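Hi R.,

As promised on Friday, here is the backbone we talked about, encoded as C-alpha cells. Could you run it through your design pipeline when you get a chance and send me back a sequence?
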C-alpha cells in the first residue's frame, strides 16, 4: 500500500522557501540601495576633495607667473617704452629688463605689445601687427580695455604645434590710460600632463572658462579646438553626460567609458555651464545623475570652473559591509535549514495525528450517510402507508351516509395517523438539523393569525382533561412581522403540546410579548406555563438533549420521541433566540422562548384583537374574509399520476378530481414511457420516486431522452430536506411530498396547469361560473359575500383609474386578476371573462389598448355595485326575525348533517358539503343557527376554506 503523503509538510516547505526567497530579495534590495546611497555619498565627498586639491595645485602653479606678470605691468621703464616704442634707447633698456623677467619665468615665453603700434613681440617668433578686429585676437581688446589686473586665454600655435596658456596683464600710465599689454605663456601640454597625471581611468575631469570653452582636459584636442563644455558633456536634445559623437575611443577603457556615458546621457537633462555660473566663488556642488557621480566647483583665481564625472562600478560595493551582509545571509540560510528540519519532524507527527482524525471523520461520515440513507428509506417506507391511511380516511369521511360509528372510527384513524406523522417529522427534522440542512424561509406574516393557529391546533389536545387554557397577548404587539412563520408555529406546537401532554389538570397559559432591539429588530417572546408534573434539577440539566424523556415510568402511556425540546432549542438558536425553563417538581414548569424577527411597518394588534385571542373568538371574525386556498377549476388540464402502489394512485386521483382535471394513471415507469411514445402529452406528470424495476429518476431521464418537454414533478415519501433541490438538479420540475399537502399540490397545479393555459382564461372562467352556479347559490342568503364584493369593486374602480393614469401595467394586471375571481364568485360570468381578457392584455403591457377599453369595464363594476348594494343592506330570507323560543329545532338531524359537512370538508369534497347545506335549508332553524350555517356556506363559497368550514361545523355541534 502506498504511503499517504503529508500535504501540510509539502505546503510548509513551499511556503517557507517562498518566504525565505522574499526575505532574501527584499533584504538584498534594501542592502543594495542603502549601499548605493552610502557609496554615492562617499564618492561625492571623494570627488569634491579631489577637485579642491586640484584647484589648489592649479592656482599654485600659476601664482608665481601671475606675480611676475603683474611686476612687469607695473615697471616704469616698460611703461615708458610702451608709451613710445620708437625711442631706441628706451627699447634697448626695456628689452634687457624683459629678458631678466623671462629668466624669472624659468625660460617661459614672454611677450609685449604697445597699443601705439600694436606690434606683438615675443622671444620665440617674429614680430607681427595685431589686428584686434580678428576673432582670434579677441584677447587684445578684452585685456586692454576690460581687464584691470590680468586675464587668461588659450591659443594654439600651428607652427610649433603647441597650445599655450597666456597670462595677460594690461599696462596703464599714471592716468589709467592703456599703453599696451605684457604677459607670459605656459606650454599647456606639459601643464595638463602634470594636472591629470594622477587621475584614475574611471574619472573624467574638465576645466572651462566663463564662455564655456574647455581650458583643460585629458584629451588636449578639446582645448585646441576650443570645444564647449556642454558639447562635450551634454546635449539638450541628444543626451546628457555624453562624449561628442566624433570622439572615437582609443582603447578598451575609453570604449567602456564612452558606452557608459552615452547610456547615462539618456537619463536626464542639465546645462553644465549654467550650473557652474550659479556657484559662488569656492563653492562645490554635486549633481544627481544616474549610474555615477558628477561634481562641479569654481577656481576663483583663474575665473575658471572644474567638473569631474565618475561612473559607478561594482568594485565600489566590495566593502566590509558587503562581506558582513553575505555572512548574515549564510546564517539565515543555516537557520532556515535547521528550522525546516525541525518543522518537518513536527509535521510528520502531526500528519500521523491528522491521518487518524481523518480516518475517524471518514468513519463518522460513513455512519452519517448510513443514517441518512436509513432515514430516507424509513421515511419512504413509513410515509407510503401513512399516505394511504390518511388519504383513504379522508375519502371515506366524504360519504354522506356514513354511519356515525364508522365516521368516528375513520376520524380516529385520521387523527392517530396525523400524530404518527408528527413523530416521523420530528425524527426527520432532527436529521436535517444534524446535517446542517435545516433552513429558514422568512416571509411577512400576520402575528395574530400565527398565535391563533397555534392555539386552535393545540386546544383540541385537551380533550376530556380538566385543563383551563389561558391566552395572554400584549395589545401593543406588532400586527405583522418578517420571519419563518412555520418554524415559530413548530416551536409553539412543541411547547404547548408538551404542556398539555404532561398536565392532567389545572391550567396551561400562553403569554406573548415582545421587545425592540437597538437596531430596530423585534424580539418575539413566548412563555408557556403549566401546572403539570414539573421537573427535577437533574432532569433540567439534560432537558434539551435529543432522545431524552423523563419520569419514564409515570409517562409510559404518553406519546413522544423526546426530540421536541431539542428541536425547539436548535430552531430558537437558528433565529438568534433563546430558550429557558423554570420548573418545580410536582408543581409545574414555565418555558420561555425568544426569537428575533425583522420589523415591518404596521400598527399594533390593538385591544380588540388581543381580546379576541384571549376569548378564542379571533377565528370567527377572520376566516370569513381570509383567503386560504382559492382552488380554481381546471377542466382543460391533463395530468398523469405514476405510482406502483394502488392506494397512492387512489388518494392522488381523488385529490386531483377536485380540480375537474382529466386524470390518467400508470403503475410503472414502463407504462409511462409507452404512453408518451404513443403520443400522450400531459400538463404535468406526477412521478413516484421509488418504484421497482425502473424508479422515478430513471423513468424521468428516459422521458427526457425521448425529447419529452412537459413538466415532471417528483411525488415521493422521501421528505428529507434538500431533496427538492436534488430533484430539480436531476431534471425534475418540482417536488411534492407524501402524504400529499393540499396547499403545495394547489401551488404546483397553478404553476404547471393554470398558468400554462392563460390563453384559455375565458373558457376557464365560464366553466368555473357554471360549476359554481350549480351549487344553488342564493345571494339573498349571503349578504356578506355581496358586501365584500362591493367593497372590493369600489377599491378596484379607484385603483384601475389610477393605474391607467400612471401607466402602471403591473398593478393593473393584479387588480384585474382579483376582480376576475370576485366576479366569478357572484355569478357574473360575462364580466369575469372581460376581466380575464384585460388581465391578459395587462401582462403584455399594452396600456394603450387598456386605456381605450377600460371605461366599459369600470361602468360594469359600478352597475354591479349599485345592483348588489341593496341586497347587501337587506336582511336574509328565513326566520331571522323570529323569536328563538318559537322554533323547535331537530337537533339530531342538524348534528347528522353537520358531521357530514365536517367529513366533506376534511376530504375537500365541496359537492357533499353543499348538498348537506341544501338539505338543512329545507328545515326551519333558529336565527342563531341560520347565521352559523351562513358562515359555513360563506367559508366555502368566498374562500374555499374547507378547514374553517369544518371547524365552524364542529363548533355548532358542540354549541
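Update: got your reply. Pasting your designed sequence below so it's all in one thread:
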Amino acid at each position: 500500500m502506498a504511503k499517504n503523503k503529508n500535504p501540510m509538510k509539502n505546503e510548509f516547505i513551499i511556503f517557507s522557501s517562498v518566504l525565505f526567497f522574499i526575505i532574501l530579495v527584499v533584504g538584498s534590495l534594501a542592502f543594495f540601495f542603502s549601499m548605493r546611497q552610502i557609496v554615492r555619498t562617499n564618492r561625492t565627498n571623494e570627488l569634491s576633495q579631489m577637485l579642491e586639491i586640484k584647484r589648489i595645485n592649479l592656482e599654485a602653479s600659476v601664482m608665481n607667473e601671475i606675480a611676475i606678470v603683474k611686476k612687469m605691468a607695473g615697471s616704469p621703464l616698460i611703461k615708458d617704452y610702451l608709451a613710445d616704442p620708437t625711442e631706441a634707447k628706451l627699447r634697448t633698456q626695456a628689452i634687457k629688463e624683459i629678458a631678466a623677467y623671462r629668466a624669472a619665468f624659468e625660460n617661459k615665453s614672454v611677450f609685449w605689445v604697445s597699443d601705439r603700434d600694436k606690434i606683438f613681440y615675443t622671444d620665440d617668433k617674429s614680430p607681427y601687427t595685431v589686428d584686434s578686429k580678428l576673432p582670434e585676437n579677441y584677447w587684445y581688446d578684452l585685456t586692454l580695455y576690460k581687464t584691470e589686473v590680468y586675464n587668461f586665454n588659450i591659443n594654439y600655435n600651428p607652427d610649433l604645434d603647441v597650445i599655450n596658456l597666456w597670462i595677460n596683464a594690461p599696462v596703464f600710465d599714471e592716468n589709467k590710460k592703456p599703453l599696451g599689454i605684457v604677459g607670459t605663456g605656459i606650454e599647456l601640454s606639459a601643464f595638463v600632463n602634470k594636472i591629470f597625471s594622477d587621475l584614475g581611468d574611471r574619472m573624467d575631469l574638465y576645466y572651462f572658462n566663463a564662455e564655456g570653452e574647455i581650458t583643460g582636459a585629458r584629451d588636449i584636442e578639446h582645448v585646441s579646438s576650443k570645444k564647449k563644455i556642454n558639447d562635450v558633456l551634454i546635449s539638450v536634445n541628444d543626451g546628457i553626460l555624453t562624449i561628442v559623437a566624433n570622439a572615437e575611443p582609443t582603447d578598451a577603457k575609453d570604449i567602456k567609458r564612452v558606452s557608459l556615458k552615452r547610456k547615462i546621457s539618456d537619463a536626464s537633462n542639465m546645462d553644465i555651464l549654467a550650473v557652474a555660473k550659479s556657484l559662488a566663488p569656492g563653492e562645490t556642488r554635486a549633481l544627481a545623475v544616474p549610474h555615477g557621480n558628477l561634481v562641479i566647483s569654481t577656481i576663483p583665481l583663474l575665473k575658471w570652473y572644474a567638473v569631474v564625472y565618475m561612473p559607478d562600478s561594482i568594485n565600489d560595493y566590495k566593502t566590509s559591509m558587503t562581506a558582513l551582509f553575505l555572512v548574515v545571509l549564510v546564517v539565515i540560510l543555516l537557520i532556515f535549514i535547521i528550522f525546516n528540519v525541525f518543522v518537518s519532524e513536527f509535521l510528520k507527527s502531526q500528519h500521523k495525528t491528522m491521518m487518524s482524525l481523518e480516518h475517524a471523520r471518514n468513519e463518522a461520515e460513513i455512519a452519517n450517510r448510513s443514517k441518512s440513507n436509513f432515514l430516507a428509506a424509513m421515511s419512504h417506507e413509513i410515509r407510503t402507508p401513512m399516505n394511504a391511511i390518511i388519504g383513504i380516511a379522508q375519502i371515506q369521511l366524504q360519504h354522506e351516509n356514513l354511519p356515525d360509528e364508522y365516521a368516528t372510527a375513520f376520524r380516529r384513524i385520521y387523527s392517530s395517523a396525523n400524530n404518527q406523522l408528527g413523530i416521523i417529522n420530528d425524527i426527520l427534522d432532527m436529521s436535517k438539523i444534524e446535517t446542517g440542512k435545516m433552513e429558514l424561509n422568512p416571509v411577512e406574516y400576520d402575528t395574530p393569525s400565527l398565535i391563533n393557529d397555534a392555539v386552535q391546533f393545540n386546544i383540541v389536545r385537551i380533550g376530556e382533561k380538566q385543563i383551563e387554557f389561558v391566552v395572554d397577548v400584549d395589545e401593543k404587539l406588532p400586527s405583522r412581522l418578517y420571519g419563518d412563520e412555520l418554524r415559530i408555529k413548530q416551536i409553539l406546537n412543541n411547547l404547548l403540546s408538551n404542556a398539555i401532554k404532561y398536565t392532567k389538570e389545572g391550567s396551561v397559559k400562553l403569554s406573548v410579548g415582545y421587545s425592540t432591539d437597538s437596531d430596530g429588530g423585534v424580539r418575539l417572546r413566548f412563555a408557556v406555563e403549566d401546572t403539570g408534573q414539573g421537573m427535577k434539577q437533574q432532569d433540567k440539566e439534560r432537558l434539551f438533549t435529543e432522545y431524552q424523556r423523563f419520569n419514564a415510568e409515570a409517562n409510559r402511556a404518553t406519546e413522544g420521541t423526546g426530540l421536541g425540546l431539542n428541536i425547539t432549542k436548535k430552531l430558537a438558536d437558528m433565529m438568534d433566540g433563546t430558550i429557558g425553563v423554570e420548573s418545580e417538581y410536582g408543581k409545574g414548569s414555565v418555558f420561555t422562548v425568544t426569537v428575533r424577527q425583522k420589523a415591518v411597518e404596521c400598527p399594533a394588534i390593538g385591544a380588540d384583537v388581543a381580546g379576541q385571542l384571549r376569548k378564542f373568538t379571533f377565528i370567527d371574525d377572520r376566516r370569513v374574509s381570509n383567503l386560504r386556498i382559492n382552488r380554481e377549476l381546471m377542466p382543460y388540464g391533463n395530468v398523469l399520476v405514476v405510482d406502483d402502489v394502488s392506494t397512492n394512485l387512489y388518494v392522488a386521483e381523488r385529490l386531483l378530481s377536485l380540480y375537474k382535471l382529466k386524470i390518467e394513471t400508470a403503475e410503472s415507469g414502463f407504462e409511462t414511457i409507452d404512453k408518451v411514445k404513443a403520443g400522450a402529452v400531459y400538463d404535468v406528470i406526477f412521478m413516484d420516486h421509488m418504484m421497482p424495476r425502473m424508479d422515478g429518476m430513471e423513468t424521468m431521464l428516459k422521458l427526457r431522452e425521448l425529447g419529452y418537454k412537459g413538466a415532471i414533478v417528483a411525488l415521493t415519501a422521501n421528505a428529507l430536506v434538500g431533496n427538492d433541490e436534488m430533484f430539480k438538479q436531476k431534471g425534475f420540475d418540482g417536488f411534492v411530498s407524501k402524504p400529499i399537502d393540499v396547499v403545495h399540490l394547489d401551488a404546483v397545479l397553478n404553476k404547471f396547469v393554470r398558468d400554462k393555459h392563460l390563453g384559455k382564461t375565458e373558457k376557464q372562467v365560464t366553466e368555473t361560473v357554471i360549476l359554481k352556479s350549480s351549487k344553488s347559490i342564493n345571494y339573498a342568503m349571503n349578504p356578506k359575500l355581496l358586501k365584500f364584493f362591493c367593497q372590493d369593486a369600489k377599491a378596484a374602480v379607484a385603483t384601475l383609474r389610477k393605474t391607467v393614469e400612471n401607466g402602471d401595467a403591473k398593478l393593473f394586471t393584479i387588480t384585474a386578476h382579483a376582480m376576475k375571481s370576485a366576479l366569478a364568485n357572484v355569478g357574473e360570468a360575462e364580466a369575469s371573462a372581460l376581466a380575464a381578457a384585460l388581465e391578459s392584455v395587462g401582462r403584455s403591457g399594452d396600456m394603450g389598448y387598456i386605456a381605450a377599453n377600460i371605461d366599459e369595464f369600470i361602468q360594469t363594476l359600478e352597475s354591479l355595485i349599485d345592483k348588489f348594494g341593496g341586497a347587501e343592506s337587506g336582511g336574509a330570507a328565513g326566520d331571522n326575525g323570529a323569536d328563538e323560543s318559537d322554533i323547535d329545532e331537530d337537533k339530531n338531524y342538524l348534528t347528522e348533517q353537520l358531521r357530514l359537512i365536517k367529513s366533506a370538508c376534511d376530504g375537500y369534497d365541496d359537492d357533499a358539503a353543499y348538498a348537506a347545506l341544501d338539505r338543512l335549508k329545507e328545515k326551519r332553524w333558529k336565527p342563531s343557527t341560520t347565521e352559523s350555517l351562513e358562515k359555513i356556506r360563506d367559508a366555502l363559497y368566498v374562500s374555499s376554506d374547507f378547514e374553517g368550514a369544518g371547524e365552524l361545523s364542529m363548533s355548532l355541534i358542540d354549541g
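One thing I noticed while checking it: The CA atoms of residues 76 and 173 lie 9 Å apart.

Thanks again,
M.
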